[in-house]
Amino acid sequence: MYRLVLDDCYRPKILGLATNKEDLIQQAVAILTANHLPSNQLNIWQENEARTVIDYGSWTHFFYIDEEKGESDV
After folding, report:
1. Residue 13's domain spans which residues?
2. Which residues are CB-neighbours of 22 under 8 A, at least 6 positions away?
3. I need a labelling partner for 54 at 20 to 30 A (CA). Which of 15, 43, 62, 72 fits?
4. What pTM value is reported for the model?
């Protein structure tokens, strides 16, 4: 399971859950579009084994996709 997290440097907020990263990337784009924020030049990279970064604000605004490992993933 993966979760979409908005980190605004004050308090991380979970925005969605899905079984794959692609669905969460689409959720992030939908959030940006709904709030009239640019989504056509996203920078996406794998930060580490469990975290994908979606940069939508020139290195200042990020979504994260974190993998949640449960008992079945052990």
Report:
1. 2-73
2. none
3. 72
4. 0.80
